[in-house]
């Protein structure tokens, strides 16, 4: 009887210890994830502005943004969403391509490999807003190195901060520059995990590097590429720091992302926090849909 009592007391103490170790994580999630989500959703259902008493208006903010019913669609929300979609597609595709290519190059025996890896990964550890300010120097129309190179090869100078499309590409190039090293690190690790026996067997049939990559390397690194693609897509939806520091959303508002617009709506000018919360929640819905589609396709593939 005493033995059973001691065992039950020991089990109870172990359970209490488990809960004590879990509590900091639970408190963190409740305080910094669930509470902000619930509170911001409640805020999106009001016409709250800083310094004024909020009034419940239901889903009017969402109707105004989407142009549902008698409301006119928010044209700036549409234009900023289109630029975010441009970054979503262009930046994701470019980072995957360049990151995979650089990983393939570094997967060979090269001199000074460690030093070169350190140099390639440097942009990943820089603050995005700092890269944006660096981009101001690099894309400078008069004395920037990119325009000097373009003029040197006879292509002429580009007005990166005056014309709409060059400004958009300047933002995208800066984002690609920062996140290509992330893709490079993940994909290189996946490539180095491919057994050498597979390449040795395949070389009996072909010596083409492209055939080896297409038939062996790519299928083996596909899961890692899929994960990186999902992370990059979600990350590209919430870009604000690079456009803010590089172009200030200009010229006009052509490089203003959707998140930038939500920030401007809620924290600049009239402080329309209710509408800003609705804008942010619509972005959360888009991110959830994108993630769900990805996980559905992955599950369908491996089942």
Features:
303 residues; mainly alpha; MetI-like fold; globular
CATH class placement: Mainly Alpha
Number of helical stretches of at least 4 residues: 12
Q: Give the overall shape, derived from the CA principal axes.
A: globular
Corresponding CATH architecture: Orthogonal Bundle
Instruction: Quote the distance from N terminus to C terminus.
Output: 50 Å
What class do helices, strands and sheet pairing give?
mainly alpha
Order of helices and strands: HHHHHHHHHHHH
DSSP strand tally = 0
Low-pLDDT regions: none
- Determine the mean pLDDT: 85
Main sheet? none
Q: What is the gyration radius calculated from CA atoms?
A: 25 Å
Helix-residue proportion: over 70%
* Assembly annotation: single chain
Count of individual domains:
1
CATH topology value: MetI-like fold
The fraction of residues assigned to DSSP E strands is: under 5%
CATH 4th-level superfamily: MetI-like
Written overview of the protein:
- The chain is an all-alpha fold.
- It has a single domain (75-263, 276-302), classed as MetI-like fold (Orthogonal Bundle), CATH 1.10.3720.10.
- The protein has helices spanning 2-44, 60-66, 75-106, 113-120, 128-138, 145-152, 164-192, 196-202, 209-237, 241-246, 258-267, 273-302.
- The longest helix is centred in the N-terminal third of the chain and has 43 residues, at 2-44.
- The mean pLDDT is 85.
């Amino acid at each position: 009887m005493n033995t059973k009592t001691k065992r039950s007391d020991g089990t109870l103490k172990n359970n209490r210890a488990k809960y004590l170790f879990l509590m900091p994580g639970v408190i963190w999630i409740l305080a910094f994830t669930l509470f902000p989500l619930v509170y911001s959703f409640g805020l999106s259902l009001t016409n709250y502005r800083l310094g004024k008493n909020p009034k419940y208006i239901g889903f009017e903010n969402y109707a105004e943004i989407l142009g549902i019913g008698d409301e006119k669609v928010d044209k700036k929300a549409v234009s900023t969403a289109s630029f975010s979609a441009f970054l979503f597609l262009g930046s994701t595709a470019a980072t995957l391509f360049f990151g995979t290519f650089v990983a393939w190059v570094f997967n060979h025996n090269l001199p000074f490999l460690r030093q070169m890896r350190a140099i390639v990964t440097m942009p990943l550890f820089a603050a995005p807003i700092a890269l944006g300010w660096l981009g101001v120097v690099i894309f400078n129309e008069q004395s920037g190195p990119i325009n000097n190179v373009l003029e040197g090869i006879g292509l002429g100078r580009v007005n990166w901060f005056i014309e709409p499309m060059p400004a958009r590409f300047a933002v995208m190039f800066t984002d690609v520059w920062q996140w290509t090293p992330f893709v490079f690190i993940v994909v290189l690790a996946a490539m180095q995990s491919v057994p050498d026996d597979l390449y040795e067997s395949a070389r009996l049939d072909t010596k083409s590097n492209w055939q080896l990559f297409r038939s062996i390397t790519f299928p083996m690194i596909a899961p890692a590429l899929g994960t990186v693609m999902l992370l990059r897509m979600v990350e590209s939806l919430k870009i604000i720091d690079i456009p803010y520091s590089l172009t200030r959303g200009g010229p006009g508002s052509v490089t203003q992302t959707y998140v930038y617009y939500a920030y401007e709506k809620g924290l600049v000018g009239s402080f329309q926090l209710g509408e800003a919360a609705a804008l942010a929640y619509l972005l959360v819905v888009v991110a959830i849909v994108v993630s769900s589609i990805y996980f559905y396709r992955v599950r369908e593939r491996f089942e």
